[in-house]
Design a protein that fits this description.
With about 375 residues, the chain is of the alpha/beta class. It is built from 6 helices and 37 strands. It is globular and about 60 Å long.
């Protein structure tokens, strides 16, 4: 079957959805799209037009359209795979999937799902579901495969530890008693690190000397981490390469947290955390007691930056200076606790080109056009700078 994951309510998922379709969110080890590719061979996306050149749709005569915020399961796959042309699958009145040649959702024969369905309703669901999804993805990725050997200098606890080819691990503690540990290809865990599962580390990433990483943490591809991390996700190509605490947080791609950057994930009065929501245009309760930092792509913090509980940083921001900056930092902002100015687009492009070049990736016209669109789309939030 030809599967198309369609975005809905994208504003609710800003700033992470500003630069990617919802199905490219990493939850567990895999992105949502990669999870569906465990079930179907042809999976593409329907998203906003300005992203479509980088994330193209594949249309065929017969298509199954699936709400992109939906996490797959074996039971849900069975229901979706049994859909006939002109039928839709719903759960509690919400559209989950439908089968049609085009993106026409009206005049469909509605079928109610009989299975439990997990969906990403809010950005905080990404770290809320991360431990469980690491467990599920671990089984998919390791089924029928044999782990590579690990150096005898390490201490291993628990059985669910899987090491891919090319991984280097020395003099570290890997504790999989409370959940699996997945170490991807061509990665490195340096000496003195302590890692507690569920944990996932994708290809070409690095855990630096003496790091302490708690469960529910995913380090995406081509990333570097150090210090103390708990229940956080780095989508990929990002660095938290020095000391400092990061908890209950989501970091997009091409981000860098400077040495000594610390994130608060618990309010002093233990109240539920509110974060900025682009859809309501105001702060909205997460109904969670623990919530740290949500940072959009290409944003940076300088040394000793402090982020308050429940801070949302947009795309392309540069944060520096002493004190706590505000809890909502618009895209392409430059500054800190003493105030912000606008990060000029030409200066931002110059930096982004250098950052991508370090990974042998070209900062091409498609990337520039996407970021140009994001710059214009987010002007309204910078009006007060």
């Amino acid at each position: 079957m030809n599967i198309i994951l369609f975005d809905t309510n994208r504003l609710n998922y800003y700033p992470l959805s500003l630069s990617r379709p919802i199905s490219f969110f990493r939850v567990g080890i895999l992105t949502i799209k990669e999870k569906w590719e465990q079930y179907f061979s042809s999976v593409s996306v329907k998203t906003d037009e300005y992203l479509s050149y980088k994330f193209p749709i594949i249309l065929k005569d017969d298509n199954i359209w699936i709400n992109a915020k939906t996490i797959p399961s074996t039971d849900l796959y069975t229901e979706i795979n049994n859909l006939r042309v002109g039928e839709s699958l719903e759960k509690d009145g919400e559209l989950i999937a439908f089968r049609n040649s085009n993106f026409e959702k009206s005049k469909l024969n509605k079928i109610d799902s009989n299975v439990k369905i997990k969906t990403i309703e809010n950005l905080t669901d990404i770290f809320k579901f991360n431990s469980e999804e690491i467990n599920i993805d671990f089984k998919f990725l390791t089924d029928g495969k044999q782990s590579n050997d690990i150096d005898e200098s390490n201490r291993l606890l628990g059985n669910e530890i899987f090491i891919e080819k090319g991984a280097k691990i020395s003099c570290s503690i890997l504790n999989a008693q409370d959940g699996p540990i997945y170490i991807g290809k061509d990665t490195e865990v340096m000496e003195g690190s302590i890692i507690k599962g569920p944990f996932a580390m994708l290809n070409n990433s690095q855990v630096k000397l003496g790091s302490r990483i708690y469960g529910g943490t995913t380090v995406g591809p081509f990333s570097k981490v150090a210090g103390e991390i708990n229940n956080s996700i780095l989508f990929g190509f990002s660095s938290k390469a020095h000391e400092g605490y990061l908890g209950n947080s989501i970091i997009g791609e091409w981000c860098n947290l400077g040495a000594g950057t610390n994130v608060s994930n618990l309010k002093n009065n233990y109240e539920k955390v509110k974060i900025w929501n682009y859809q309501t245009n105001k702060f909205k309760s997460t109904e969670l007691q623990f919530c740290g930092l949500i940072m959009g792509d290409h944003s940076k913090s300088s040394i000793n930056t402090m982020f308050n509980t429940g801070t949302v940083v947009g795309v392309g921001a540069n944060i520096y200076g002493s004190g706590f900056p505000r809890n909502f930092i618009p895209s392409f902002s430059w500054g800190g606790a003493l105030g912000f100015s606008i990060y000029k687009l030409n200066s931002f492009f110059s930096t982004a080109e250098k950052v991508l070049k370090r990974r042998d990736i070209t900062f091409n016209d498609i990337e520039k056009q996407i970021l140009f669109n994001i710059y214009n789309m987010t002007k309204v939030y910078r009006n007060e700078l």
